[in-house]
Queue: 2 jobs
Job 1
Amino acid sequence: MDLNRKRVLLTGASGGIGQAIAAELAAAGASLFLVGRSHEKLEAIRSSLPEPDRHVVFPADLTREADLERLNKEGNRLNQSGQGIDIVINNAGANEFNFLSRRSAVSVRQELDLNLLAPILMSQLALNWLNRPGIILNIGSAFGGIGYPGYTVYCSAKAGVYRFSEALDRELDGSGIRVLYVAPRATDTDLNSPVVKQMNQELGNRSDSPQTVAKVVVESLRKETTSRWIGWPEKLFVRINQIFPTVVTQSIRRQQARIHHFIELINSGKL
Ligand SMILES: NC(=O)c1ccc[n+]([C@@H]2O[C@H](COP(=O)([O-])OP(=O)(O)OC[C@H]3O[C@@H](n4cnc5c(N)ncnc54)[C@H](OP(=O)(O)O)[C@@H]3O)[C@@H](O)[C@H]2O)c1
């Protein structure tokens, strides 16, 4: 899709990857509908973009039904006024690195709500008002393709988003709406706590800049690429994990002691 003059609804716009996507899309000539919980943060992003008046902010908590309903109303209103949204990017996300046994049921539910249910419900709403041709692009994770200790809930949510994207894209085949998936590996943003960053460094897990992810997102939109897994060797591990999961299990087993060490540090409050 040519992105010039397209209207893009971007969730998680105030985060590390969201800001980079916003900058790339604005530079490509798109107008942005920036969604996040903090009005102040969204306004700061909007005013940092070229031609700020072309973009709008919409504070909303995607785990709240009332806020999703407000988004739905606004989507319908824009559509009826001839200013409909062309692209929805479900990018908001959060995670907690910990053993499942140490997590509260509330935190598990919240993580699933934001990372899995919110993109599903946003996509469902978008079907009411998205322009045709239109695109829904869901941001996943390498952890959606590889189960990793300490991230059980996040892995299940992102794996769900991957299958959801695949199924909806097939369901909408021929409708004028594409559903795409982009899976970053570790990326340098505040999503990862200092402990997680230190662990990744020690384990030799590479990470990308948010700008690298944003460029892949924009390229995926332009080429309408069904799914993209960012980073080498992670994308190879995702494939191996599908065919020979025990190979990946053995590789992660070698990291297990360090992973447990860092989770214990978090739980002891020493870091
Ligand atoms: N960073 C990584 O290593 C990495 C790797 C793979 C995939 N990803 C995925 O990339 C996406 C962006 O992550 P990021 O690294 O940019 O994270 P981030 O910097 O922590 O940003 C998260 C964004 O989500 C928004 N958000 C959080 N809770 C929300 C809620 N309840 N309702 C609405 N918005 C909410 C935050 O805005 P407010 O707090 O202002 O609401 C913020 O804009 C996520 O889906 C993440 O899972 C990240």
Note: The chain has one domain: 7-268.
Job 2
Amino acid sequence: MPVSILCYHSVTNGWDDPVSVETADFERQCAVLARSTTVVPLRGVIDRLAAGYSVPAGTTVLTFDDGFADYVEHAVPIMERYGLTATMYVVAGSLEPGGIAVDWIRGLDPADAPPLMTPEQIRELHDRGWEIGSHTMRHADMPTLSEAECLADFKESKELLEDLLEAPVTSLAYPFGHHAPHVRRAAELAGYRIALALPEGPEEAGPYSVPRTGIYRGNPEWKFRVKNSRWYAHVRTSSLYQKVAGRRT
Ligand SMILES: [Zn+2]
């Protein structure tokens, strides 16, 4: 697939964690994207592929995982200035009364976690044309669950989000990008058209294991340019990458 799918988490200032990109860095990255690629909504890519068309080279899709509220405060206004769009993957358990503890960021006490978006904010984004997808119910490491448990989670998160948005939710992002054959089967059975991964090594790509490239804090611009080139996801999933990478960045 000649499309580069980038994966962000938080865009804010002063959260010193790999998942959080500073607003000034994000702004520079958006400027590079607006200049050098065509950023399209994920749904557009899915529809083109389903209709038998290929996706033009130089196409980029932006995605965000976890549903942090800084998306509304920082990322969306910056993307709007550059005419870009993105899909946000929400942890659907956060929609339930009482919300959910952000217990999936390594080294972070959930009590210190930045807030997640409220259901009202998610609904409002959707109404303004910003795509929303499922990031499961509780951000579990799905390969550790049974196929039946995965299926129940994928269905429940889809239904909760569809009830909130009053629209179909057709894409899923696996927590931590982790998946396995039984997880992919469950994603398909639950009715998603596509499921996104985040490969750290060799991994076969398919509609239920679509590779993304994670963009992390402090990635200097040269590295960002490399990461956004369309062969990067392929290189990362090749065995060659394992040999040359040495260690994960
Ligand atoms: Zn996540």
Note: The radius of gyration is 17 Å.
